[in-house]
Fold this sequence. Notes:
Elements: H1 25-37, H2 42-51, H3 55-70, H4 72-82, H5 90-104, H6 110-123, H7 130-142, H8 144-153, H9 159-168, H10 173-179, E1 187-190, H11 197-206, E2 211-223, E3 229-241, E4 258-260, H12 268-285, E5 295-301, H13 307-317, E6 328-329, E7 335-336, E8 344-351, H14 354-366, H15 371-377, E9 381-387, E10 408-414, H16 429-432, H17 435-452, E11 456-466, H18 475-484, E12 488-491, E13 501-502, E14 507-508, E15 521-527
Parallel strand pairs: 5-8, 5-10, 8-9, 10-11
Antiparallel strand pairs: 1-3, 1-4, 2-3, 6-7, 11-15, 12-15, 13-14, 14-15
Amino acid sequence: MRQNSTAPRNNKLKPSSNLIMNGSVRVRVIRTLLAIQNGQSLSSVLDPLLNSLHDGDKGFAHALLLTTLRQWHALARLLDSLADNPIDEVEVRTTIQVGLVQLLYLEVADHAAIHETVEAAKEIEFAHSTGLVNAILRKVAKNPSKFRKKCDKKHSLPNWLAYQLKQDWSEQYDDLTQGLRQPAPMFLRVNSAVTSVEDYQHALDGAEIDADIVELTTGFKVASSSGSATSTTLSNKGLRLHQSTAVNALPDFALGTASVQDMHAQLAAPIINQALMAKLSAESANTDSDSVGKEIHILDACAAPGGKLAHWLELISANDQSSLFHVKQDNNGMSSETSPENTNIKVTAIDNEAPRIERIRENLQRLNLSQHDLQQADNSIALNIVCADATRWQHGKNKKAATNEPVFDAILLDSPCTATGVIRRHPDISILRTEEDIEQTALLQADILHNLWPQLKAGGYLLYVTCSILKQENVEQMQDFITHHNDAVVIEFTDDCSWGIEQAIGRQCLPIDSASGDGFYYALLQKTAE
Length: 530
């Protein structure tokens, strides 16, 4: 089969910030895919696509776009095998791949998939390709199961990423590469300050929304007041929906009762909160002064869009044993409640882009966790959200200051990464990321770590989190950091953990375990006295 283009291989479209949304549903999906190939993210183009369509077309457009992205690289290889000559025009390749998805994955009737895709080629002004588009799609339509098996046989990732995953996760490679091309389940985090997971599951039942409770256990060792290491274990419950649901259909979602958050992402706030409570408890047991613990400083670095920050604030303000107001010990070493009046908690959150800062504020407002809400509920919690670069920002630094000072009792660093662990939710990542991004991102991570670490108090904890499954951004980053920071001690996760794979430092979640959460990495560090 021939096509008429003489354009060079891998011809790129001219960048454009204007996404034209007219024409048929398939044309709009094709234009959206072209915009993504030009560097625009799925999150920036999805709403314009769906908002341009009638309600009856939105479901099909969403499925067509997301499925095409998930199978993108596999479809590209299949297309190359079907064409007699290289197809170099990006618009033509994209159009054919949209047609292939309809035949192989969406079970659209042959005549409709072929006819409408050929018409789409005309609408985007590539009428010269209609013969090629028609011929390839008709060939596939004769034996779709054969070509579906061929498409599914190998991974649907760029070759450089597949190679890296083979190096990092040889035992899990097959399951991992196949798992990354599947849709991810929808998880909910229930606001424990408002209701319980069990009660919210009942509310979902009443709304005819099926959900399972997923419970993850975390164990790690912290220093006790005697100086020895003791194990602490915590449990975290979330809800996994059987089917993804619009948030406006969730009971009391607008009132802040629940949030959409991946199950593995829900581990972050409880871990750093529990570590901080262990620090404060040890300090309280080691001194007779009533002033200990009266002022607590915590930092959420790279905080947008605010899910982990909100979770931490929920835990802080909860009237139960997860609260920071329950850390003081009596003379027998037993914990007893510390009144809010005796404890001031200063929470700082930073991110480097103003629109992302606004996202944080919007999410906190929905959850009744804005600074105004916190002041109304309890004057002991102060929240400060700052737009700043985490590689340079220093707390309280004035124009004349030369060095940063240790001020934080705990730091949650949700570090920038290539986001390879969330490809199921953001399949455009496999198109947008390049091999060079890994090295650049690792350098950025190191810069942030080196800037924030001096601002952590001795005895304080830093939780390093990424949504990556690449070891260079995760365990190898931590190994390098430990090598250059003698005052950093690795806190070991114990066998009590029901999630992740043990690494030389920290634990790695892969998006193929029983919880079905995304790929996340966690490492907990404590700073020793110099």
